[in-house]
Amino acid sequence: MQKDKFKVINFIRELLLNIDKNLENFPKKDIEIKNRIRNISYDLLEAVYEANSVEDKNEKDKLIDKCIAKIKVIDFLINLSYDKQIINNKRYLKFFDEIVVVGYEEEVIENPEGKYVQSDIDKVKFKCIPVKKKMDRLIKYNDNMAFVENAINDCDAVILRSWWGVSVCRKLKKIYMIEVVNCMWDSLWNHGMLGKMAAVPYTILQKKTIKNAPYVLYVTNHFLQQRYPTQGRSCGISDVVINDEIQEDILSKRLKKIEKRNSCKIIIGTAAAVNVAYKGQKYVIDALSILKRNNIDNYEYHMAGSGNQERLKKYAEKRNVLELVKFCGAIPKEKMTTWYDSIDIYIQPSLTEGLPRAVVEAMSRALPCLGSDAGGIPELLLPSSIFKRRHKFAKQIANKLQRMTVQEMKELSRYSIKKAKEFAPDILDVERNHFYEEFVQESKQYAAGQTKQDKD
Asked: Would you say residue 1 has pLDDT above 50?
Protein backbone atom coordinates (compact mmCIF):
# COMPACT_ATOMS: atom_id res chain seq x y z
CA MET A 1 0.00 0.00 0.00
CA GLN A 2 2.82 2.37 0.88
CA LYS A 3 4.44 1.70 -2.52
CA ASP A 4 1.16 2.52 -4.27
CA LYS A 5 1.02 5.82 -2.41
CA PHE A 6 4.48 6.76 -3.64
CA LYS A 7 3.52 5.71 -7.19
CA VAL A 8 0.66 8.22 -7.14
CA ILE A 9 2.94 10.96 -5.81
CA ASN A 10 5.64 10.19 -8.38
CA PHE A 11 3.06 10.17 -11.18
CA ILE A 12 1.75 13.59 -10.11
CA ARG A 13 5.32 14.91 -9.83
CA GLU A 14 6.14 13.72 -13.37
CA LEU A 15 2.93 15.30 -14.63
CA LEU A 16 3.74 18.63 -13.00
CA LEU A 17 7.33 18.57 -14.30
CA ASN A 18 5.99 18.12 -17.84
CA ILE A 19 3.54 20.97 -17.33
CA ASP A 20 6.38 23.12 -16.02
CA LYS A 21 8.39 22.49 -19.22
CA ASN A 22 5.51 23.85 -21.29
CA LEU A 23 5.36 26.92 -19.07
CA GLU A 24 8.98 27.82 -19.86
CA ASN A 25 7.99 29.15 -23.30
CA PHE A 26 5.01 31.25 -22.21
CA PRO A 27 5.13 34.82 -23.62
CA LYS A 28 5.44 37.57 -21.02
CA LYS A 29 2.03 39.02 -21.88
CA ASP A 30 0.39 35.80 -20.65
CA ILE A 31 2.29 35.63 -17.36
CA GLU A 32 -0.97 35.67 -15.33
CA ILE A 33 -2.22 32.36 -16.81
CA LYS A 34 1.27 30.90 -16.44
CA ASN A 35 1.40 31.80 -12.75
CA ARG A 36 -2.10 30.43 -12.11
CA ILE A 37 -1.20 27.06 -13.67
CA ARG A 38 2.04 26.90 -11.71
CA ASN A 39 0.47 27.87 -8.38
CA ILE A 40 -2.41 25.38 -8.75
CA SER A 41 0.13 22.70 -9.69
CA TYR A 42 2.05 23.29 -6.46
CA ASP A 43 -1.22 23.25 -4.50
CA LEU A 44 -2.11 19.95 -6.18
CA LEU A 45 1.19 18.35 -5.19
CA GLU A 46 0.75 19.56 -1.61
CA ALA A 47 -2.82 18.16 -1.49
CA VAL A 48 -1.63 14.77 -2.82
CA TYR A 49 1.07 14.54 -0.11
CA GLU A 50 -1.53 15.50 2.52
CA ALA A 51 -4.05 12.93 1.22
CA ASN A 52 -1.40 10.22 1.47
CA SER A 53 -0.63 11.04 5.08
CA VAL A 54 -4.22 11.39 6.42
CA GLU A 55 -5.76 8.28 8.03
CA ASP A 56 -9.34 9.50 8.49
CA LYS A 57 -11.40 8.27 5.49
CA ASN A 58 -13.74 11.27 5.33
CA GLU A 59 -10.84 13.71 5.45
CA LYS A 60 -8.97 11.68 2.81
CA ASP A 61 -12.05 11.71 0.52
CA LYS A 62 -12.29 15.49 0.86
CA LEU A 63 -8.63 15.89 -0.08
CA ILE A 64 -9.01 13.54 -3.05
CA ASP A 65 -12.00 15.60 -4.25
CA LYS A 66 -9.84 18.71 -3.81
CA CYS A 67 -7.08 17.12 -5.93
CA ILE A 68 -9.54 16.18 -8.68
CA ALA A 69 -10.92 19.75 -8.71
CA LYS A 70 -7.41 21.19 -9.07
CA ILE A 71 -6.57 18.76 -11.88
CA LYS A 72 -9.72 19.89 -13.71
CA VAL A 73 -8.74 23.56 -13.31
CA ILE A 74 -5.21 22.83 -14.61
CA ASP A 75 -6.71 20.91 -17.54
CA PHE A 76 -9.03 23.84 -18.33
CA LEU A 77 -6.20 26.41 -18.22
CA ILE A 78 -3.88 24.30 -20.39
CA ASN A 79 -6.64 23.71 -22.96
CA LEU A 80 -7.36 27.45 -22.90
CA SER A 81 -3.66 28.09 -23.55
CA TYR A 82 -3.69 25.73 -26.54
CA ASP A 83 -6.87 27.30 -27.92
CA LYS A 84 -5.35 30.77 -27.69
CA GLN A 85 -2.04 29.38 -29.00
CA ILE A 86 -0.23 30.60 -25.88
CA ILE A 87 1.09 27.06 -25.76
CA ASN A 88 1.36 26.14 -29.40
CA ASN A 89 0.33 22.57 -30.12
CA LYS A 90 3.41 22.20 -32.31
CA ARG A 91 2.49 20.46 -35.52
CA TYR A 92 5.83 18.72 -35.91
CA LEU A 93 6.71 18.04 -32.28
CA LYS A 94 3.72 15.72 -32.07
CA PHE A 95 5.59 13.33 -34.33
CA PHE A 96 9.32 13.99 -33.85
CA ASP A 97 11.46 13.91 -30.71
CA GLU A 98 13.62 16.78 -31.93
CA ILE A 99 13.51 19.27 -34.80
CA VAL A 100 16.46 20.92 -36.54
CA VAL A 101 15.53 24.01 -38.57
CA VAL A 102 17.95 24.88 -41.37
CA GLY A 103 17.77 28.20 -43.20
CA TYR A 104 19.59 31.38 -44.07
CA GLU A 105 20.60 33.76 -41.32
CA GLU A 106 18.88 37.12 -41.22
CA GLU A 107 19.44 39.83 -38.64
CA VAL A 108 16.38 41.26 -36.89
CA ILE A 109 17.12 44.61 -35.25
CA GLU A 110 13.84 45.04 -33.41
CA ASN A 111 10.64 43.19 -32.63
CA PRO A 112 7.72 45.58 -33.31
CA GLU A 113 4.81 44.88 -30.94
CA GLY A 114 5.76 41.24 -30.51
CA LYS A 115 5.58 40.46 -34.24
CA TYR A 116 8.30 37.83 -33.98
CA VAL A 117 7.98 34.75 -31.79
CA GLN A 118 10.99 32.99 -30.30
CA SER A 119 11.13 29.56 -31.93
CA ASP A 120 14.37 28.07 -30.60
CA ILE A 121 12.56 26.37 -27.74
CA ASP A 122 13.00 23.02 -26.06
CA LYS A 123 13.47 20.26 -28.69
CA VAL A 124 13.79 22.82 -31.53
CA LYS A 125 17.28 23.80 -32.71
CA PHE A 126 18.32 26.25 -35.42
CA LYS A 127 21.30 25.81 -37.73
CA CYS A 128 21.55 28.97 -39.80
CA ILE A 129 23.66 29.21 -42.95
CA PRO A 130 25.97 32.21 -42.31
CA VAL A 131 25.16 33.98 -45.58
CA LYS A 132 23.57 37.42 -45.30
CA LYS A 133 23.89 38.71 -48.89
CA LYS A 134 21.27 37.24 -51.19
CA MET A 135 23.70 36.97 -54.11
CA ASP A 136 25.98 34.78 -51.96
CA ARG A 137 23.15 32.24 -51.78
CA LEU A 138 23.84 31.52 -55.45
CA ILE A 139 27.58 32.25 -55.59
CA LYS A 140 28.33 30.06 -52.55
CA TYR A 141 25.78 27.37 -53.44
CA ASN A 142 28.19 24.43 -53.00
CA ASP A 143 29.36 25.71 -49.61
CA ASN A 144 25.76 26.22 -48.56
CA MET A 145 24.81 22.67 -49.57
CA ALA A 146 27.81 21.33 -47.62
CA PHE A 147 26.46 23.17 -44.55
CA VAL A 148 23.01 21.64 -45.11
CA GLU A 149 24.51 18.16 -45.50
CA ASN A 150 26.31 18.49 -42.19
CA ALA A 151 23.19 19.92 -40.49
CA ILE A 152 20.82 17.11 -41.48
CA ASN A 153 23.30 14.22 -41.43
CA ASP A 154 22.01 12.91 -38.08
CA CYS A 155 18.32 13.50 -38.87
CA ASP A 156 15.98 10.60 -39.66
CA ALA A 157 13.63 12.56 -41.94
CA VAL A 158 13.50 15.94 -43.69
CA ILE A 159 10.60 18.30 -44.46
CA LEU A 160 11.23 20.81 -47.28
CA ARG A 161 9.34 23.71 -48.84
CA SER A 162 10.93 23.58 -52.34
CA TRP A 163 13.52 21.82 -54.48
CA TRP A 164 16.27 23.36 -52.38
CA GLY A 165 18.01 20.61 -50.37
CA VAL A 166 16.49 17.60 -52.14
CA SER A 167 19.84 16.63 -53.69
CA VAL A 168 21.35 16.43 -50.18
CA CYS A 169 18.47 14.21 -48.96
CA ARG A 170 19.02 11.81 -51.85
CA LYS A 171 22.76 11.76 -51.35
CA LEU A 172 22.33 10.93 -47.65
CA LYS A 173 19.41 8.54 -48.39
CA LYS A 174 17.04 10.51 -46.16
CA ILE A 175 13.32 10.17 -46.64
CA TYR A 176 11.77 13.58 -47.25
CA MET A 177 8.43 15.36 -47.59
CA ILE A 178 7.78 18.54 -49.56
CA GLU A 179 5.17 20.95 -48.24
CA VAL A 180 3.85 22.97 -51.20
CA VAL A 181 2.61 26.24 -49.70
CA ASN A 182 2.66 28.56 -52.73
CA CYS A 183 3.15 28.72 -56.49
CA MET A 184 6.81 29.32 -57.29
CA TRP A 185 6.02 30.68 -60.74
CA ASP A 186 3.57 33.31 -59.44
CA SER A 187 5.87 34.29 -56.57
CA LEU A 188 8.92 34.85 -58.76
CA TRP A 189 7.18 36.32 -61.81
CA ASN A 190 5.62 39.03 -59.62
CA HIS A 191 8.89 39.85 -57.86
CA GLY A 192 10.75 42.24 -60.17
CA MET A 193 13.10 41.63 -63.09
CA LEU A 194 15.40 39.20 -61.24
CA GLY A 195 12.34 37.20 -60.21
CA LYS A 196 11.14 36.99 -63.82
CA MET A 197 14.60 35.75 -64.92
CA ALA A 198 14.56 33.02 -62.25
CA ALA A 199 10.89 32.05 -62.70
CA VAL A 200 11.34 29.60 -65.61
CA PRO A 201 14.34 27.53 -64.37
CA TYR A 202 13.20 27.50 -60.74
CA THR A 203 9.64 26.47 -61.65
CA ILE A 204 10.97 23.62 -63.83
CA LEU A 205 13.10 22.45 -60.89
CA GLN A 206 10.13 22.71 -58.55
CA LYS A 207 7.86 20.71 -60.87
CA LYS A 208 10.45 17.95 -61.32
CA THR A 209 11.21 17.81 -57.59
CA ILE A 210 7.56 17.56 -56.54
CA LYS A 211 6.81 15.00 -59.24
CA ASN A 212 9.48 12.64 -57.88
CA ALA A 213 9.05 13.33 -54.15
CA PRO A 214 7.99 10.36 -51.98
CA TYR A 215 5.63 12.54 -49.88
CA VAL A 216 3.93 15.82 -50.81
CA LEU A 217 1.61 17.89 -48.63
CA TYR A 218 -0.34 20.62 -50.46
CA VAL A 219 -2.11 23.48 -48.66
CA THR A 220 -4.80 23.66 -51.37
CA ASN A 221 -7.37 21.15 -52.58
CA HIS A 222 -6.87 21.67 -56.32
CA PHE A 223 -4.76 24.63 -57.46
CA LEU A 224 -1.25 23.59 -56.39
CA GLN A 225 -1.97 19.93 -57.18
CA GLN A 226 -2.79 20.87 -60.77
CA ARG A 227 0.29 23.06 -61.20
CA TYR A 228 2.73 20.76 -59.40
CA PRO A 229 1.49 17.14 -59.66
CA THR A 230 3.33 14.31 -57.92
CA GLN A 231 3.76 10.57 -58.38
CA GLY A 232 4.36 10.12 -54.66
CA ARG A 233 1.93 9.95 -51.75
CA SER A 234 0.10 13.21 -51.40
CA CYS A 235 -2.51 14.99 -49.34
CA GLY A 236 -4.24 18.36 -49.66
CA ILE A 237 -4.77 19.99 -46.27
CA SER A 238 -4.82 23.67 -45.40
CA ASP A 239 -2.11 24.92 -43.05
CA VAL A 240 -4.61 27.51 -41.82
CA VAL A 241 -6.45 26.53 -38.63
CA ILE A 242 -9.13 28.52 -36.81
CA ASN A 243 -8.54 27.62 -33.17
CA ASP A 244 -11.17 29.88 -31.63
CA GLU A 245 -14.68 28.43 -31.56
CA ILE A 246 -16.92 30.21 -34.05
CA GLN A 247 -19.85 31.49 -32.01
CA GLU A 248 -23.27 32.05 -33.55
CA ASP A 249 -23.41 35.63 -32.25
CA ILE A 250 -20.50 36.55 -34.55
CA LEU A 251 -22.84 36.26 -37.52
CA SER A 252 -25.74 38.08 -35.87
CA LYS A 253 -23.48 41.00 -34.88
CA ARG A 254 -22.07 41.19 -38.40
CA LEU A 255 -25.55 41.19 -39.98
CA LYS A 256 -26.62 44.05 -37.69
CA LYS A 257 -23.52 46.00 -38.69
CA ILE A 258 -24.28 45.44 -42.39
CA GLU A 259 -27.78 46.87 -41.84
CA LYS A 260 -26.17 50.18 -40.85
CA ARG A 261 -23.91 50.39 -43.93
CA ASN A 262 -25.89 53.24 -45.51
CA SER A 263 -25.44 55.50 -42.49
CA CYS A 264 -21.65 55.50 -42.36
CA LYS A 265 -18.46 54.91 -44.29
CA ILE A 266 -17.73 51.42 -45.55
CA ILE A 267 -14.30 50.18 -44.49
CA ILE A 268 -12.45 47.75 -46.75
CA GLY A 269 -9.50 45.89 -45.23
CA THR A 270 -6.46 43.85 -46.26
CA ALA A 271 -4.07 42.07 -43.89
CA ALA A 272 -0.70 41.65 -45.64
CA ALA A 273 2.81 43.11 -45.65
CA VAL A 274 2.65 46.59 -47.22
CA ASN A 275 6.18 46.48 -48.63
CA VAL A 276 5.51 43.47 -50.88
CA ALA A 277 4.17 44.58 -54.27
CA TYR A 278 2.56 41.25 -55.18
CA LYS A 279 0.11 41.56 -52.28
CA GLY A 280 -1.74 43.92 -54.64
CA GLN A 281 -2.91 46.71 -52.32
CA LYS A 282 -2.26 49.24 -55.11
CA TYR A 283 -5.20 47.84 -57.09
CA VAL A 284 -7.61 48.63 -54.26
CA ILE A 285 -6.14 52.14 -54.11
CA ASP A 286 -6.75 52.40 -57.86
CA ALA A 287 -10.35 51.26 -57.30
CA LEU A 288 -10.86 54.01 -54.68
CA SER A 289 -9.54 56.51 -57.21
CA ILE A 290 -12.03 55.30 -59.84
CA LEU A 291 -14.89 55.55 -57.34
CA LYS A 292 -13.83 59.03 -56.24
CA ARG A 293 -13.82 60.27 -59.84
CA ASN A 294 -17.41 59.04 -59.99
CA ASN A 295 -18.21 61.10 -56.86
CA ILE A 296 -18.30 58.01 -54.61
CA ASP A 297 -16.09 58.66 -51.58
CA ASN A 298 -17.80 56.71 -48.76
CA TYR A 299 -15.17 53.95 -48.83
CA GLU A 300 -12.02 53.77 -46.72
CA TYR A 301 -9.19 51.29 -47.16
CA HIS A 302 -7.45 50.01 -43.99
CA MET A 303 -4.25 48.02 -44.35
CA ALA A 304 -2.90 45.87 -41.50
CA GLY A 305 0.64 44.65 -42.00
CA SER A 306 4.30 45.28 -41.39
CA GLY A 307 6.79 46.87 -43.77
CA ASN A 308 7.73 50.27 -45.15
CA GLN A 309 4.56 52.21 -46.03
CA GLU A 310 6.16 54.91 -48.19
CA ARG A 311 5.60 53.21 -51.58
CA LEU A 312 1.85 52.84 -51.05
CA LYS A 313 1.51 56.24 -49.37
CA LYS A 314 3.07 57.95 -52.39
CA TYR A 315 0.90 55.88 -54.70
CA ALA A 316 -2.29 56.82 -52.80
CA GLU A 317 -1.23 60.48 -52.88
CA LYS A 318 -0.59 60.24 -56.63
CA ARG A 319 -4.07 58.73 -57.10
CA ASN A 320 -5.55 61.53 -54.95
CA VAL A 321 -7.04 59.18 -52.31
CA LEU A 322 -4.54 59.41 -49.46
CA GLU A 323 -7.29 60.69 -47.13
CA LEU A 324 -9.23 57.46 -47.81
CA VAL A 325 -6.34 55.17 -46.90
CA LYS A 326 -5.25 54.17 -43.40
CA PHE A 327 -2.08 52.25 -42.52
CA CYS A 328 -2.64 50.26 -39.32
CA GLY A 329 0.89 48.82 -39.14
CA ALA A 330 1.80 45.42 -37.70
CA ILE A 331 -1.03 44.30 -35.41
CA PRO A 332 -0.30 41.66 -32.73
CA LYS A 333 -2.06 38.37 -33.34
CA GLU A 334 -4.28 38.63 -30.27
CA LYS A 335 -5.62 42.00 -31.52
CA MET A 336 -6.40 40.92 -35.08
CA THR A 337 -9.94 39.82 -34.16
CA THR A 338 -10.72 43.38 -33.07
CA TRP A 339 -9.30 44.69 -36.34
CA TYR A 340 -11.39 42.30 -38.45
CA ASP A 341 -14.49 43.32 -36.50
CA SER A 342 -13.75 47.00 -37.22
CA ILE A 343 -13.95 46.64 -41.02
CA ASP A 344 -16.93 45.94 -43.29
CA ILE A 345 -15.46 44.08 -46.29
CA TYR A 346 -12.26 42.06 -46.51
CA ILE A 347 -10.33 41.93 -49.80
CA GLN A 348 -7.27 39.87 -50.80
CA PRO A 349 -6.02 41.47 -54.05
CA SER A 350 -2.86 39.33 -54.28
CA LEU A 351 -1.04 38.49 -57.51
CA THR A 352 0.25 35.27 -55.94
CA GLU A 353 -0.96 33.18 -52.99
CA GLY A 354 -1.08 29.70 -51.55
CA LEU A 355 -4.11 29.48 -49.29
CA PRO A 356 -4.19 32.86 -47.51
CA ARG A 357 -4.61 32.65 -43.75
CA ALA A 358 -5.98 36.18 -43.53
CA VAL A 359 -8.97 35.34 -45.76
CA VAL A 360 -9.95 32.39 -43.56
CA GLU A 361 -9.52 34.49 -40.41
CA ALA A 362 -11.69 37.22 -41.93
CA MET A 363 -14.35 34.65 -42.87
CA SER A 364 -14.36 33.36 -39.29
CA ARG A 365 -15.50 36.87 -38.28
CA ALA A 366 -18.39 36.65 -40.81
CA LEU A 367 -16.86 39.30 -43.06
CA PRO A 368 -18.00 39.52 -46.69
CA CYS A 369 -14.81 38.60 -48.56
CA LEU A 370 -13.51 39.44 -52.04
CA GLY A 371 -10.28 38.36 -53.71
CA SER A 372 -8.22 37.78 -56.82
CA ASP A 373 -8.03 34.51 -58.72
CA ALA A 374 -4.50 33.84 -57.39
CA GLY A 375 -3.55 30.48 -55.92
CA GLY A 376 -6.09 28.91 -53.58
CA ILE A 377 -8.26 32.03 -53.13
CA PRO A 378 -10.97 30.71 -55.54
CA GLU A 379 -11.20 27.59 -53.34
CA LEU A 380 -12.33 29.82 -50.47
CA LEU A 381 -14.62 32.38 -52.10
CA LEU A 382 -17.74 32.32 -54.23
CA PRO A 383 -17.17 32.84 -58.00
CA SER A 384 -19.01 36.17 -57.81
CA SER A 385 -16.42 37.41 -55.29
CA ILE A 386 -13.38 36.70 -57.49
CA PHE A 387 -11.53 39.22 -59.69
CA LYS A 388 -9.28 38.26 -62.60
CA ARG A 389 -5.74 39.53 -62.14
CA ARG A 390 -4.43 42.19 -64.51
CA HIS A 391 -7.65 42.20 -66.56
CA LYS A 392 -8.78 45.72 -65.61
CA PHE A 393 -8.26 44.54 -62.04
CA ALA A 394 -8.96 47.88 -60.32
CA LYS A 395 -12.06 48.53 -62.43
CA GLN A 396 -13.48 45.11 -61.46
CA ILE A 397 -12.99 45.96 -57.78
CA ALA A 398 -14.56 49.40 -58.17
CA ASN A 399 -17.57 47.99 -60.01
CA LYS A 400 -18.08 45.28 -57.38
CA LEU A 401 -17.93 47.75 -54.49
CA GLN A 402 -20.25 50.19 -56.22
CA ARG A 403 -22.88 47.56 -56.99
CA MET A 404 -22.71 45.54 -53.77
CA THR A 405 -26.05 45.62 -51.98
CA VAL A 406 -26.91 45.05 -48.33
CA GLN A 407 -28.53 41.75 -49.28
CA GLU A 408 -25.40 40.54 -51.11
CA MET A 409 -23.20 41.50 -48.16
CA LYS A 410 -25.45 39.47 -45.87
CA GLU A 411 -25.28 36.44 -48.17
CA LEU A 412 -21.48 36.68 -48.32
CA SER A 413 -21.37 37.02 -44.54
CA ARG A 414 -23.40 33.83 -44.07
CA TYR A 415 -21.23 32.02 -46.60
CA SER A 416 -18.05 33.18 -44.84
CA ILE A 417 -19.03 31.81 -41.43
CA LYS A 418 -20.09 28.51 -42.97
CA LYS A 419 -16.85 28.15 -44.92
CA ALA A 420 -14.66 29.10 -41.94
CA LYS A 421 -16.05 26.18 -39.93
CA GLU A 422 -14.27 23.83 -42.36
CA PHE A 423 -10.98 25.04 -40.88
CA ALA A 424 -11.61 23.88 -37.33
CA PRO A 425 -8.65 21.85 -35.97
CA ASP A 426 -10.76 18.77 -35.22
CA ILE A 427 -11.60 18.52 -38.93
CA LEU A 428 -8.15 19.23 -40.39
CA ASP A 429 -5.96 17.50 -37.82
CA VAL A 430 -7.32 13.98 -38.38
CA GLU A 431 -6.26 13.78 -42.03
CA ARG A 432 -3.01 15.71 -41.52
CA ASN A 433 -2.00 13.59 -38.54
CA HIS A 434 -2.66 10.39 -40.49
CA PHE A 435 -0.42 11.63 -43.31
CA TYR A 436 2.39 12.64 -40.94
CA GLU A 437 2.13 9.33 -39.08
CA GLU A 438 2.57 7.45 -42.34
CA PHE A 439 5.62 9.60 -43.14
CA VAL A 440 7.08 9.08 -39.66
CA GLN A 441 6.54 5.32 -39.85
CA GLU A 442 8.45 5.10 -43.11
CA SER A 443 11.23 7.33 -41.72
CA LYS A 444 11.64 4.84 -38.86
CA GLN A 445 11.94 2.04 -41.39
CA TYR A 446 14.63 4.03 -43.17
CA ALA A 447 16.46 4.59 -39.90
CA ALA A 448 16.23 0.87 -39.14
CA GLY A 449 17.60 -0.02 -42.53
CA GLN A 450 14.24 -1.29 -43.90
CA THR A 451 14.28 1.21 -46.75
CA LYS A 452 12.10 1.30 -49.78
CA GLN A 453 13.42 2.04 -53.27
CA ASP A 454 13.80 5.80 -53.61
CA LYS A 455 12.28 7.42 -56.71
CA ASP A 456 14.75 8.78 -59.19
From this structure: no
